[in-house]
Amino acid sequence: MREQEKHSSISNRFNSTHTKLELESDMNDQSTSVTHLPPEQETIRAKCFHPSGTFVEFTEKEIEQSIPECFERIVRKDPDRIAIKMEGSALTYDSLNKSANRIAWALHNQLGERIEPVLLLCRNGLGSALSCLGILKAGKILAVANPSSPTERIAHVLENSQAVAIVTDKYNRNLARELFKDPQQVIDIDALEYDLPDENLALKIPPDAVAQIVYSSGSTGQPKGIFFDHRRVLHDIMTDINASHICPDDRLITVKGLSFGAGPKILFKALLSGAAIFLYDVKSEGLSNLTAFLTKEGITICRLGASVFRNFVNQLSGTEQFPLIRMITLGGQTIAHGDIEAYKKTFSDSCVLRHHLSSSEAGTLCYYFIDKETEISGANIPVGYSVENKKILLLDESGNEVDLGEVGEIAVRSRYLSSGYWRSDVLTSARFLADPIGGDERICLTGDLGRMLSDGCLIHLGRKDFVFKIRGFRVEIGEIERALLSHPQVNQAGVAVWEREGGEKYLAGYIALRKGCSPRVDELRSFLAEKLPDYMVPSAFVFLEDLPLTNGKLDRKALPRPENKRPELTQPYVSPRNDVEHKLVQIWQEVLELNPIGINDHFFDLGGHSLAATRVVSQVIKKFQLEIPLQSLFQSPTVSQMAVMIMEHQTKTLGGGDLDRILVELESLSDEEAQRFLDTERGTERR
User: Fold this and answer.
1) 579-686: CATH homologous superfamily?
2) pLDDT category, 296, cuts 50, 70, 90?
């Protein structure tokens, strides 16, 4: 049975079953929103306050407005407080509001007051934050595209959203003009007219007007849009602010840009509580600099994906202190016991760890708070207790609720779910079910599996289908498989998710080639990089004669685990030639869990990614006693190139016998590498 027909069948049975249940009782105990938490959770949540005691509850009355109205109220209350900061540049609430107003007026003058989608295509930074607010202030619908995504993907988002304009910056204006042929509909925030007003537009935007379209990985091979009105966005923000007691004296950090699905919501969560948000670009700044940043900026709430958190704590020396951080929020994927132990070891007794479960379609579902005294005996870390105004149901394949303690699909009943899938009634009806008793609530099938404990605590057991979180990003492996199958030399393709020893999940691609074809792994990566974001390109590839099938379908359980060995690359294997290269190869092999690694192998062709790059650079700094930026790995992505770079750094700081040793190392280099090294040194002398 096709998935659509299956969901339709569940919907019919569910409505029939639960209409009767609702008339007899108000559902069973496991479907009720938890308003009374167990004593230990109440105790931990009571710690989650800023010492200043300035938290003010975000009320349900406040969600009956638009996001701009809510923000402008905060601006009037405290205009001179810092609102946002990145790379040394900061904006107060007043300056942020005025700059966003200029963007809003530009859109209003060009497009009028119609509520229509506008695509944001900006580099991560203050400009993207201004644009998020400006688009909403103009009464438009915010749709965001990541400029680093393949052009084909951005074009799909533009076409599917039916955006009437693109808001962009000087870094992406050429791409925007290429995608949108009408230059009048491309708003470049770096080239706005100077005489644009900076006062509020004072548009009356109703709370049920569409505010945002969020694009996530889609099973059809293209991203699908999920849209929300202002009320539903504000409800999710209210839930998070109240659960974490975020106040104006808090300083939040996010290491993800604003151009991914939840990015704007993270921005609004800080701004609508009067707090300050700090944007940290982990790809360019690296994890080794994050410690100093957290301390310098006095960060109190730290939001990290589980993968980023693991890599961050792993590179710490153990002497660091973070006395001001009162909460660590981990999201994006399931956390492990090792993450909890790392939190207990690294952060102060006053710091609380918060785990949660959320869904793109249903928003935040559950919270679970952990402190230094929390003991978890089971293999799975709980995702916690349902938030206000959302009821958790666990359903079997027929749409009936399972008994307490049994496994079922997690469904959510609420009036605060997303509005559905943009321009797709079929997808919406398959995932969202009407209220069984004809009210204004709906039921969303999340596709996740769970088990409910007797006290209402939910255990998350993974995806029912094939959607996973990789490095904090939602990935549907069907989209990757379709991209692989579009390669002219690929006959069959499959993708599976595996887990490394440290708990990090990674993608493996399985390929059966067409007769007479033999593409190398680096060639496949280059092909996929033109179609998919980097986090969706598999870290490992396995070539098989034929993929295992059962009843004509791919048998994923029969796919072999990738071997921890060097893939077949266009570049032949070359072993290390000197001590520096030997040490670098050891570091790379440890981080990438591959053996052997050749000195001319490209880091990203071996399955490396930005988080792994930060680990390599951190170990290089410790091993060779030098300071290098993370960007150095991107500029020197092979062991041989990095070895030359290290020796260049060493000669600037060492002398005598150390220089003699480095000259001996030089003898092992190729003529071209040695010449590059010598040219660099001559340039240093001339300077």
Assistant:
1) ACP-like (1.10.1200.10)
2) very high
